[in-house]
Design goal:
The structure holds two protein chains of two kinds.
Chain A (H helix, E strand, L loop, with lengths): L4 E3 L2 E4 L5 E6 L6 E7 L5 E8 L2 E5 L7 E4 L6 E5 L8 E8 L11 E2 L3 E5 L1
Parallel strand pairs in A: 2-11
Antiparallel strand pairs in A: 1-3, 3-8, 4-5, 4-9, 5-6, 7-8, 9-10, 9-11
Chain B lengths: L2 E3 L4 E5 L4 E3 L2 E3 L4 E8 L5 E7 L5 E3 L5 E5 L4 E6 L8 E9 L7 E2 L3 E6 L1
Parallel strand pairs in B: 2-12
Antiparallel strand pairs in B: 1-4, 3-9, 5-6, 5-10, 7-8, 8-9, 10-11, 10-12
Chain lengths: 117, 114
């Protein structure tokens, strides 16, 4: 069964550094998402992406965040200047195009644990 | 704004016990409801989902959930849990506004003792 994959599984960085988290969505999926989960808190939506542009973003997704689909397979989340409070598990998800019960399921990757020191 | 509440943060059961995990959402319009499970060290997996029709939804691994619109609830149930059900369970919702970002509850950690 096809899966969403994410690399790296764990990233440690110094405060102020830039990080890029990578995701490979399921190949025929066209909607992509990033979520994050700070330890002990809820999974929170960051951004959704379709047709090479952001379709929706949350208030968390400020100017230090950006997303990109640099080629036909990867979907990346960049944090420009990391802060301590960016430490979290970041999940990528994808879904096929369309609405309805057979297309509205998001498939999640295993997550990247980001630790900002 | 919509929100999802899971009132049980940590549940400990013995094998063969019955399970019910609560989920309440706050949104008055059309909702699509999901339960995801995260086994230790693994990614979020879909257990079951409700879009319309029969409010009793059956999912994988013997789980089911009942959508009760009047109570804004979507509780997850399993008649007899196994040790392998030890995991974290998340309730999530889409609202009917066209937004397709999931709003998650805080999760319930289930520990099943052999």
């Amino acid at each position: 069964e096809p899966e969403v994959t994410q690399t790296p599984s764990h990233q440690v960085t110094q405060m102020g550094q830039e990080v890029i988290l990578r995701c490979v969505p399921i190949s025929n999926h066209l909607y992509f998402y990033w979520y994050r989960q700070i330890l002990g808190q809820k999974v929170e939506f960051l951004v959704s992406f379709y047709n090479n542009e952001i379709s929706e973003k949350s208030e968390i997704f400020d100017d230090q965040f950006s997303v990109e689909r640099p080629d036909g397979s990867n979907f990346t989340l960049k944090i420009r200047s990391t802060k301590l409070e960016d430490s979290a598990m970041y999940f990528c998800a994808s879904r096929i195009l369309g609405t309805g019960i057979n297309t509205d399921t998001q498939y999640f990757g295993p997550g990247t644990r980001l630790t900002v020191l | 704004a919509q929100s999802v509440s899971q009132h049980n943060h940590h549940v400990i059961l013995s094998e063969a016990a019955s399970l019910e995990l609560g989920c309440n959402y706050s949104y008055g319009g059309t909702v699509n409801l999901f339960w995801y499970v995260q086994y230790p060290g693994q990614h979020l997996q879909l257990l079951l989902k409700y879009f319309s029709g029969d409010p009793l939804v059956k999912g994988i691994k013997g789980f089911e959930a009942e959508f009760i619109k009047s109570k804004f609830s979507f509780n997850l149930r399993k008649p007899s849990v196994q040790w392998s059900d030890t995991a974290e369970y998340f309730c999530a919702v889409y609202s009917g506004t066209g937004r397709r970002a999931l709003t998650f509850g805080s999760g319930t950690r289930l520990q099943v003792q052999p």
